[in-house]
Specification:
mainly alpha; two-stranded antiparallel sheet; 4 helices; 5% strand
Length: 125
């Protein structure tokens, strides 16, 4: 496996981890009441949207990541899980945004790509 393919695979796994953090945020938001619940659901959706946003505009994707992670963590500050999940999402998301912004060849997670025989262009599946 070449270095480029290994980097792409690693980025794909980190992308899956960030999406999982966003999904957990949505699940925790569904169980919370009132404004905290809405912040969790919206925050989880924003965290999940960081991956496609990072490919096109890394700087705004960083802002979306912070806006997704921080409000629910602050609203549920007494909990141990949500602030730690927010820190995890911020750490993973920072890596996704940095790699997507510096990598011109990245076209998404490798699970969504299929290389054509003969080394041609890639096709999204």
């Amino acid at each position: 496996m070449g270095r480029r393919q290994a980097d792409t695979t690693r980025l794909g796994l980190v992308t899956v981890a960030l999406t999982l953090c966003g999904t957990l945020y949505v699940a925790l938001g569904v169980t919370a009441l009132g404004a905290a619940g809405a912040a969790g659901i919206l925050g989880g959706l924003l965290i999940c949207s960081v991956v496609p946003a990072a490919r096109h505009a890394p700087r705004p994707a960083s802002a979306v990541l912070v806006l997704g992670a921080v409000p629910f963590a602050v609203a549920t500050w007494w909990s141990v899980v949500t602030p730690l999940l927010a820190l995890l999402a911020l750490g993973i998301g920072r890596g996704v945004v940095a790699r997507a912004g510096s990598s011109s060849h990245w076209s998404g997670p490798p699970l969504l790509r299929m290389e054509l025989p003969g080394g041609g262009d890639t096709v999204r599946t």
